[in-house]
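Structure ticket #2291
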Amino acid sequence: MTGSSAGAQPAAEPVTVPADEAPFDPAVPWRKSASVALRPEPFGALVYHFGNRKLSFLKSKPLVAVVTALEEHPDVPGALAACDVPEAQHPAYVTALATLARSQMIERR
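Resolution: structure written out below.
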């Protein structure tokens, strides 16, 4: 053991989870980050975050539509329904949006 005696219990300290590691909650309102620009492409869009300088690719036009529509709906399921995403595909879209949230491309409203 390094830096503590055997049998000693470490002090209990609060654990802070960084915002970009918080679990993605599709039930809350989301939006494209104000620091993000979408550039339409034939495959979907390039997404660039001017703050953290991350570049991402949205590989489908329906996903671009969902990201754009997030601002107008109270939650992710509402945006997915408004963009006519088949319910069977909702889990894949939620996973993609969670990835975008972790990279700060979308944010809670």
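Closing remark: The first strand starts at residue 30 and ends at 32.
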